[in-house]
Design goal:
230 residues; alpha/beta; Rossmann fold; four-stranded parallel beta sheet; three-stranded parallel beta sheet; Asp/Glu/hydantoin_racemase; Aspartate/glutamate racemase family protein; Asp/Glu_race; isomerase
Length: 230
C-alpha cells in the first residue's frame, strides 16, 4: 500500500471526514483491521482564511508548497489536498514536491461523466466559484459545462461556509437556503450539482436536491484509497 500524504486543516472539520472515509474504504477493500497508510500535515486555518480574504495568494502558495515538500520528505508517495479552493496551487505543489497530486476535480468529474451528465452546477467558496482554476479544469479536461450561482447566491454560499460550516455549525435554515440555491441552478439547466467545498457535505444532503449531488470530499477520499492500493 502506498502512503497517502494528506494536507488538511482547511478546515479540520472536513479533514476529519477525509481520515474517516479513507480508513473505512481501506478496511472495506482489505478486510479485517486494515487501515490506510497515511501522513497528514494540518495547517492553521485561521491563517489560511485570513490570507484568502485579503487576497495574499503568494503567501498561500508558499504555505501549500512547503506542506507538499514536508510530506514528500516524510515519505508520502502522493499528495491529497483536503480542500477544493487551495487546488489553485496544485501544479506548483506537485512540481515542488516531485510527487503526483490527486486533483479533487478529477474523480468528481469522472463520476459525473460516468453517470451521463455534462451540465453541472458548482457550489463552493467564492474563490472556487469565481476563479478559473477549478471551473477551467472541469471544462478543459472533462468537457463539463459549469454553472455557478448568481452573485447574491454565491455570497450566501460563501458566508455559510466561512461563518458556519468550518466551525462545525450546521443550521436548518442554511440547509434550506442551500436547497434554494440548488433549485435555482437546476432551473437554469444544471443536471447535477458539485459540492465543491469539502465542508458542504456536512450540510447538503441528496434529499435537498432534485438532481444528483456530487460530494467532492467522499469522491476524493475514495480515489485516494484506490490510488494507494493500485
Amino acid at each position: 500500500m502506498k502512503t497517502i500524504g494528506l494536507i488538511g486543516g482547511m478546515s479540520w472539520e472536513s479533514s476529519a471526514e477525509y481520515y474517516r472515509i479513507i480508513n473505512q474504504e481501506a478496511a472495506k477493500a482489505l478486510g479485517g483491521t486494515h487501515s490506510a497508510r497515511s501522513l497528514m500535515l494540518s495547517v492553521d486555518f485561521a491563517e489560511i482564511e485570513a490570507a484568502q480574504h485579503r487576497g495574499d495568494w503568494d503567501a498561500l502558495e508558499a504555505e501549500m508548497v512547503a506542506a507538499a515538500r514536508a510530506l514528500a520528505a516524510g515519505g508520502a508517495d502522493f499528495l491529497v489536498l483536503c480542500t477544493n479552493t487551495m487546488h489553485r496551487f496544485a501544479d506548483a505543489m506537485e512540481a515542488a514536491a516531485g510527487l503526483p497530486l490527486l486533483h479533487i476535480a478529477d474523480p468528481t468529474a469522472e463520476a459525473i461523466r460516468a453517470d451521463g451528465f455534462s451540465r453541472v452546477g458548482l457550489l463552493g467558496t467564492a474563490f472556487t466559484m469565481e476563479q478559473e482554476f477549478y471551473k477551467g479544469r472541469l471544462a478543459s479536461r472533462h468537457g463539463l459545462d459549469v454553472l455557478v450561482p448568481e452573485a447574491e447566491d454565491r455570497a450566501l454560499v460563501h458566508r455559510v461556509i466561512y461563518e458556519e460550516l468550518v466551525l462545525g455549525v450546521v443550521r436548518a435554515e442554511s440547509r434550506a437556503a442551500y436547497a434554494g440555491v440548488i433549485a435555482r441552478l437546476v432551473a437554469r439547466g444544471a443536471e447535477a450539482v458539485i459540492l465543491g467545498c469539502t465542508e458542504i457535505m456536512l450540510l447538503a444532503r441528496p434529499e435537498d436536491s432534485p438532481v444528483p449531488i456530487y460530494d467532492t470530499t467522499t469522491l476524493h477520499a475514495r480515489a485516494a484509497v484506490a490510488a494507494a492500493l493500485a
